[in-house]
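User: Run a structure prediction on this.
Assistant: Running it now.
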Amino acid sequence: MRKFIIQRLFLSILILFCVTFIIYALMRSLPGSFVENMAMQLAQAPGAKPFEEWIAQLNAAYGLDKNLIPGYFTWLGDALAGNFGDSWKYTVPVLDKFKEVIWLSFTMGAISFILELVIAIPLGIVAATKQYSKTDYFITAGALVGISLPTFFFATLLKLGFSVKLGWFDLYGLVGRDYAQLSSWGQFWDKANHLVLPILTLVIVSVGSLMRYTRTNMLEVLNSDYIRTARAKGLSEKKVIYHHAFRNTLIPLVTIIGGSLPGLFSGALITETLFSIPGIGWTSYQAMLAGDIPFSMFYMTFLAILTLAGNFISDILYAVVDPRVRIA
């Protein structure tokens, strides 16, 4: 197992190296010069340096005055040292802005992820154990609706119903107008109130696929020979389902759940944008619109690290859940 982990770590590092090189090459190939635009804005400030000096400084800072390969290794060396430069849009170091917004996205992602597991897995088991019943049809139809319809549709429906018609929640933002006048406890509940609809949107659009996956794998396990043997021995249906069948259903579910863990940190770009929640997804989207190359490169590198980490965690959990899995 130790040898397998070391091999996967080295493979992940190699893949990350290739991915970051592609990201850097794509940024170098973008049409138009965002560096020139940024230098022009900086040069227009009172008492600022001339345009040509800003161009030279920005190109040197990000290795753009060199060829592709030397420029990439210049950027990589700075990145490994934890220096991703200053954000052109937010005018602060990239990592400082990242630390400011990441925990809001993590809170939203963690709550929606827990709710997704609590709702999807039990409903998937119920649908499988009551196959072709009205309950199964109802759960399956709800899952298909969640899978098929886009995020912005659900978000619009929720805002129309709960914000416009009922007035229970604000349409946009993280805090209300009177946030500064509230007590600490009141400020907490004000933020929590603004996060209800975004979290509900995330749960609705993600719960369907996990529910269907749970149902499909549960049906496959319930039709296995050892399940029929357990029933023939006189075991209770509850023990057959939750002790024998569900434990083996966990094996493929681990792959899905492990792959979902990076989503806790990557942010929900569409949902955060629709509700104007200043998380990492919304912040990165605004940076990309503004041509903020340092922040955009950091965010895409961050997503690549999360994806590799999710796959690595899935492999480890697979062996933990199923003791029969061994690495030769």
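DSSP finds 14 helices and no strands in the chain.
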